[in-house]
Write a structure and sequence with these properties.
It contains 10 helices and 16 strands. By secondary structure, it is α/β, with parallel strands linked by helices.
Length: 290
């Protein structure tokens, strides 16, 4: 539940200046204003499941988009059960929308790509909670190598050949000499990937879906001393989240979704670091580099 220290769940994933909102608990609009995220830049919203702390901010957000004069379509990815109740709520509140709300039903039981553009894919991660629930995996597509401008200039190779060379062709000097592609490029940056693992019990096999992801967020509602409650309510402990990160061989773990019983989440952080040292706490308005 929202507390004086923590809001309900919502994250913005920024990939090359393209913004994606993941979950939309109460207070999300206010938090977005505090971090100066322009609402018009959000064109895709992903909801993990229909518990209120992950979706009750959505009707207000959609209405605000309309009041701000939005005209661009808004794409919403969520379990099918959200669709009709959301439309009914918007109709009851009398907010006619001047933009198109495009609903994409999500199958929470399958890992599949549900969004793709020229630089990115987003796929579902099946999770196990008290209701249908999934996470989302954001994965960059492989980058093209970097042109060695100094080498090109030294050999007199025209920059008009740059794109062909990036795509694997050899370069050609003014006298017709062919220069191998490998001599004209530097290795591309490794594609990054971010996984959002929403509410879920510990899944020993989850790491198979997350292998070599750069950064994962994994719910860590409880400390190990409350593992019985974690099992009852189908949540994870900080230690279990760290085990997933370790087994998936990720570079960084972010833990969040803390039970309000903990006045100081350092207990959870210390527990996770026993297994996975590169762990950090999710915090309000934190900016985390992937």
């Amino acid at each position: 539940m929202p507390t004086l220290r923590h809001n309900a769940s919502a994250q913005v994933v920024d990939i090359n200046d393209k913004l994606f909102l993941v979950d939309c608990g109460e207070g999300t609009q206010t938090q977005l204003r505090r971090v100066k995220v322009h609402f018009a830049r959000i064109n895709h919203i992903f909801i993990s499941h229909l518990h209120g702390d992950h979706c009750l901010g959505l009707p207000g957000m959609i209405s605000t988009f309309g009041m701000l004069g939005r005209t661009a379509p808004l794409h919403l990815y969520a379990p099918e059960a959200l669709h009709q109740p959301l439309l009914m709520m918007l109709e009851c509140c009398g907010h006619g929308l001047d933009y198109e709300l495009v609903f994409h039903p999500v199958d929470t039981k399958r890992q599949q790509v549900i969004y793709e553009d020229k630089g990115l894919t987003i796929e579902t991660i099946p999770l196990q909670h008290r209701m249908p629930c999934c996470g989302y995996l954001f994965r960059e597509k492989p980058h093209l190598p970097h042109i060695r401008r100094d080498r090109m200039d030294a050999l007199g190779i025209s920059m008009s050949q740059a794109m062909r060379i990036k795509n694997g062709e050899d370069g050609v000097m003014p006298d017709g000499t062919v220069v191998p592609h490998q001599q004209l490029v530097l290795p591309a940056q490794q594609p990054r990937a971010y996984a959002y693992c929403s509410d879920t019990k510990y899944i020993p096999t989850l790491h198979h879906c997350l292998e070599n992801v750069t950064t994962i967020y994994h719910e860590s509602t409880y400390a190990s001393e409350h593992q019985r409650e974690a099992e009852k309510y189908m949540h994870s402990t900080a230690l279990q989240a760290a085990m997933v990160a370790r087994d998936a061989k990720v570079k960084q773990l972010v833990i969040g979704h803390f039970s309000s019983r903990y006045e100081n989440e350092k207990l959870l952080l210390d527990e996770a670091k026993q297994v996975f040292p590169n762990t950090i706490l999710a915090d309000e308005r934190a900016i985390i580099e992937v």
